[in-house]
Amino acid sequence: MAWNSKIATKFLVISDTHNFEFDDTARDSQPLRLPTPTADVLLHCGDLTQVGGVSSFKKALKMLGCIDAELKLVIPGNHDLELDKPYWEAQRDHEGNPEDAEGHHLAVKAMTGSLAAEAGVSFLNEGANSFTLKSGAKLKIYVSPYTPSFCDWAFAYKHNEDRFNGPHQVVNGVTSIATNPIPDDVDIVMTHGPPKGILDFCPQGNVGCENVLQAFRRVKPLMHCFGHIH
User: Fold this and answer.
1) Which long-range contacts (CB under 8 A, 24 or more apart) does 178-182 make?
2) Which of 2, 96, 104, 184 could form a disulfide with 140 if both were Cys (CB 3.0 to 4.6 A apart)?
3) 99 CB contacts (<8 Å, ≥6 apart)?
4) CA-to-CA dists, residue 164 to 26, 147, 180, 221, angstroms
5) How far out from the chain centre does Cα 61 lie?
6) Sign of the C-alpha dihedral, residues 178, 199, 189, 2?
7) Closest CA to 180 of 189, 4, 90, 20
8) DSSP character for 61?
9) Are residues 142 and 188 in contact, defined by beta-carbon separation less than 8 angstroms?
10) Is the CB of residue 210 less than 8 Å from the CB of residue 196?
C-alpha cells in the first residue's frame, strides 16, 4: 500500500449534508458547527444537496470552504441529480427547457471550477486517485457515488450488477459491470452507500450492497467511509 504509517494523518469524514449551511447562531448541540476540527484530509461521502440545483452546489462549496483541511475530497450521492449525466438527460424536462439541458454542465462547472478551487475542494469521479500531503504522507483512495437502485434517484445500479469487482471476483448470480473495479492496493475506500449489514438499517431492512461488502473483504482497506442511510 502507498500509506506511510510513520506519518500521523487526521481525517474528518462527513456525508449527507443536504444543503447544510453553517449558522453562527447554531446551538452547541448541533453536530457540525464552526469551528470544525482541523484535519489533514476532509472526506465528503456524497449528497451535498437535497435534490440538486446549481445554487445548492455553490452553497455546499461555500460550506466546505469553511472547513480547515489541507485536502478536501468530495463525491456526489444519489440526491445530487445533475451530476449524474445519464440520469439527468433521461429525467430532464421533455419540453427541452434550456436550463434543464444545461443542468449537468453547469453543475459540473460549479463543482470543478473557480468556486471549488477557492473552497479547496477536489471533486472526484468514480475510480482510484493518489495524493501526497505536505507532511509527506501518501494515500491512494478509491471513490464511487453509486448505490443500489432505490426510488429512481441518481447514480443507481441494479441489485444484480457489481460496479466494484471484476468478472472473476463477483459472487454467484451477479454480473460485473465494473469499468473501475476497486484496486487491491488502495488505502481508503469512499463510497456513497454502505456495505451490506454495516450501518445500513432502515425501515426497509438492511439495504447495503453485497457487492461493496465483497470488494471490502477482498481489498481490506485501512478505512472505508460512506453515508446514504441516515
Assistant:
1) 179/126, 180/126, 180/127, 180/128, 180/142, 180/144, 181/215, 182/128, 182/142, 182/215, 182/218, 182/219
2) 2
3) none
4) 40, 11, 7, 14
5) 14
6) negative
7) 189
8) H
9) yes
10) yes
For residue 30, the SS3 value is: coil
The Cα–Cα gap between 213 and 229 comes to: 16
Rounded Cα–Cα distance for residues 44 and 196 (Å): 20
Q: What's the distance, Cα to Cα, between the start and end of the chain in Å?
A: 32
User: Which cell numbers hold the place of 25?
Assistant: 447562531
Q: Are 107 and 77 in contact (CB under 8 A)?
A: no
User: What does the DSSP assignment read for 96-109?
Assistant: --HHHHTHHHHHHH
d(CA 106, CA 55): 10
Short-list 72, 73, 2, CA closest to 38: 72
What one-character-per-residue DSSP string does 131-150 give?
EE-TTS-EEEEEEE--EE--
DSSP H stretches of helix in the chain? 54-65, 85-91, 98-101, 103-112, 114-119, 210-219
> 14 is written with which cell numbers?
462527513
Position 196, amino acid: K
Tens digit of each residue's pLDDT (9 = 90 or more) over 169-206: 998 899 999 999 999 999 999 999 999 988 878 888 77
Residue 95's pLDDT band (cuts 50, 70, 90): very low
- Counting beta carbons within 10 angstroms of the beta carbon of residue 192, is it exposed (0 to 12), middle (13 to 18) or buried (19 or more)? buried
What grid cell was written down for 52? Answer: 440538486
72 - beta bridge partners? 42, 121
| The pLDDT of residue 19 is above 50 | yes
CA distance 144 to 150: 16
